[in-house]
Amino acid sequence: IQLMANKLEKELTILKHNYKEAQRKFECEADLRRKTEVLLNETKKNLDEEQNKRTREMNNNQQHNDKINLLEKQINEMQEKLKSETENSQKLKKQIAELQLAKTDAEQKSTQLQSVLAGLQVQRDGLQQEIAELQTRLAQERNARTQVKELNNELENKLQTISLDLEKSMNREQQAVKDNGVLIEKVSELEKANAGLDVELKAAQLRYKQEVKAHQETEKSRLVSREEANMQEVKALQTKLNEEKSARIKADHISQEKERQISMLSVDYRQIHQRLQKLEGECRQEAEKVMALQSQLEQENSKKNTLLSELSLQSSEVAHLKARENQLVKEVTQLRETKRKFEEEVVKIKNAHNADILQMKELQDQLEAEQYFSRLYKTQSSELREENAEKIRAMQEMEEERLSLKHQVQVAVARADAEALARTIAEETVADLEKEKTIKELELKDFMTKHRNEIAAKETAMNNLKEAEADIMKKLNQKIAEHEDLLQQNKKLQEECAQNKTERAELEKLKEKLKTENLLKQVAVNKLTEIMNRKDTMMQGKQKVKISSAADLKKKEKESKRLQQELTQEREKYTQLLQKYHDLQNMLTEECHARTKLQMEIDCKATEIEQLQSKLNETASLSSVDNDPEDNQDSVFEGWLSVPNKNIRRQGWKKQFVVVSSRKIIFYNSEIDKQNTIDPALILDLSKVFHVRSVTQGDVIRADAKDIPRIFQLLYAGEGEARRPDGQQNQLDTSTLRGTGDERPGTKIHKGHEYIQLTYYMPTTCDLCPKMLWNVFKPPAAYECKRCRSKIHKEHVDNNDPITPCKLHHDPHSAKEMLLLATTQQDQELWVSRLSKRIQKCGYKANSSNNNTSGDGSKISPSQSTRSNYKPYAVNVQKSATLPANTTLKHWSAK
Question: Which residues form the RhoBD domain (predicted)?
Fold first, then answer.
């Protein structure tokens, strides 16, 4: 019944609307008819008026044509007169031009002659000055010549005196040379005598020594053989000795005299030698003076010759100048005569020029009169033409006005028609819109009722979900409590294990003691056997000792058996504890997997709730219809992205459906899994994501070059990752850890960055400057951070350039990266921009700034903030599928 009522209401409203439209159309057509009748009457009136105007204009046009013909005849006559006058004026102009040319020629000739005259006068003055200068030079040279002659005479006299002195000095020198030769002969003779005397002296000395020796020998022989020698022989010998002594004294006197003579002669020789040296020096000086005088003589002779040559040249120049002067005088006379002739010609030309000027003035007066008349005729003709043109313009303007009026009327009619059509169309559209409005209002009412019902259903669903969430949270809390109990039990078991280990160590010690005691026992038995074979007297005592030692051995064996039993019991207990420990570990892993599954399901449900809330907000507020949902940062966005397999080139990329909420990034294997919201492949916590960026060829070597603009990178903490436990471990090779366990010698720490020195042979850019960071042949030195993967030139670190600190102040062992491939480059840019906004709002940096200080004021380090209390993950070293082989990367995966 309600549907029928609604249909009837709709039909009624449509009929009312159609009736209103019909009435409106009828009124419009009536108005149009009235307007057209009025326009028809007006156009008829305008037509009659225009016909009357045309007849009048035709009559006026005939009168104007007659006047124009008369004026044209007058113009033709005036033009003929003008032609004749212009011909006369042209002839007069030609005559004037010829006269002016003749006048200019005459003036040029006169100016040339005057210039030639002035040049000749200047030359004459110059020649006169030159003649005067030459005469003065001649007088000076004559005076110089007389002086030179006087000097020559004086020099000749000096030369004669010097030659006489030279001859005298030469004679003196010859005499000195002769004396020198005589003295040299004497000196040589004296030297010879001296040498002979020296030889004789030496011979005499030798003889004397020989005789002294012989005498001493004779005396010795006499003393030895005969004590009483002949006195006569002694006396004879003494006389001989005395004679020899006297002869010796005489020889000494002679030698002394000879020595004196030699010394005197040597002194004389030295004096003569000195005199000779003085004479030689004087001779050299005289020779030098003679040489100087000869050179002066030669110079004077050369000067004399040069002066004579100059005199001859100057005399020839004087003769030439005199001849030139005569010629110039003749030329001056000739030029004066020509000047007179030219002056007479100039006077004649001036007279002719004055006559021509008078004729010119008369002709100019005639020309001015004719020009005045021609101007009058021209002004009259131009006035008539202007009148004619004005009338023609008026005619044209009238026709243009008529045409414009016609056009305006047509345009007005067209406008009226267009307006009428537009009005009708607008009215029709208004009617349609009103129809649609009424229909939309009815539909809106239906939608509002449906929407209210849906909201109520969704609220009930929300309440159910909240209840389920509360139940899950309760279960989670129970599981956490159970987990804590298990942890405590584990601790107890570990303590028991430690105790067992200590007991084992004690057992091993006891075993060693047993072995030593057994050895001692054997040694003792051996000794006892040896002692048994000895004396019989000692047997009784030995038997007593044996009995006591056997009793001790039995006791010790009992103790060892007891200890072995205890050991077996402890071993059994230890095996039981180990089994319990393994069971607890398995339980723990199962509970961890269940917990991760529950957490993943909770995250999926939370994202679904967020989506529903955003949809509710969009539908509830009508104003939010205009807003773009992409601009809202809290809204959930989703899409298809590809994740790399182990080897990109062989296995390629795996497509996954990604949903990004305000807290989580969820990866589904397909859209069906997303609809189920129970089976996500991977969930990343946004609070543990560090940053997102696009990659370069250097970052992803094994990827295809075409895919690089579509690839981007996510960097996050390892604890922010939650994987599906039943999935394969290496199914999604999404993350790779930077190997920063041990610091290499090549690393450099600067502002939180841990730089490695690298060289890039593929296109890469610096994060600080626009310079290239790569080269095929000689790449520049570069640094790459092991934590945040930022690339810079080495110069920036060496020069202490301003570098932004590292974004990842965290434990490097828990850092992971994920490479993602978008469908297009635009999608990649959109994903990067959205994720960067979301990371800025609720990423790791935002959370670390909020939770930088704890409740009691103590600061928490970034590494502590990213670590959790329980880490069910173990380090598994693995090479990245996409990054270069030389970079060490660690892959973290769940046990």
Answer: 473-537
In angstroms, the CA 603 to CA 723 distance is 12
Q: What is the pLDDT of residues 360-393, one digit of tens each?
A: 888 778 778 777 877 777 787 778 778 778 888 8
**Confidence at 856, pLDDT banded by 50, 70, 90:** very low
Residue spans of the domains in the chain: they are: 120-206, 634-729+811-848, 752-803
Class of the CATH-defined domain 634-729+811-848: mainly beta
Q: Which of 35-49, 92-106, 731-745 has the lowest mean pLDDT?
A: 731-745
Q: Is there a contact between 324 and 134 (Cβ–Cβ < 8 Å)?
A: no
Q: So what's the pLDDT on residue 677?
A: 63
The CA-to-CA distance between both ends of the chain, in Å, stands at 67
Rounded alpha-carbon distances, angstroms, from residue 523 to 61, 549, 557, 715:
171, 12, 16, 74
**Distance in angstroms (rounded) separating the CA atoms of residues 764 and 771:** 10
The whole-angstrom separation of Cα 575 and Cα 236 is: 154
d(Cα 738, Cα 887) in Å, to the nearest integer? 8
Cα separation, 691 vs 688, in Å, equals 10
Each residue's pLDDT tens digit, 581-593: 767 777 877 887 7
Instruction: Yes or no: say if 715 and 589 are a contact pair by the CB < 8 Å rule.
Output: no
Q: Across 681-726, where does the E strand assignment appear?
A: 682-685, 689-694, 711-717, 721-723
Q: How far apart are CA 520 and CA 536, in angstroms?
A: 26
CA 229 to chain centre: 133
Instruction: Please give the Cα distance from 75 to 67 (Å, whole number).
Output: 12
Whole-structure pTM value: 0.31
What pLDDT does residue 78 have? 77
Cα separation of 340 and 56, whole Å? 87
What one-letter code names the amino acid at 565? Q
For residue 828, what are the CA distances in angstroms to 318, 818, 819, 871?
A: 110, 14, 12, 33
Nearest to 760 by CA among 713, 796, 786, 792: 792
CATH architecture of 752-803: 2-Layer Sandwich (3.30)
Nearest to 756 by CA among 738, 779, 769, 777: 738
What's CA 853's distance to the chain center, in Å?
43
Residue 823, both tokens: 């469908």
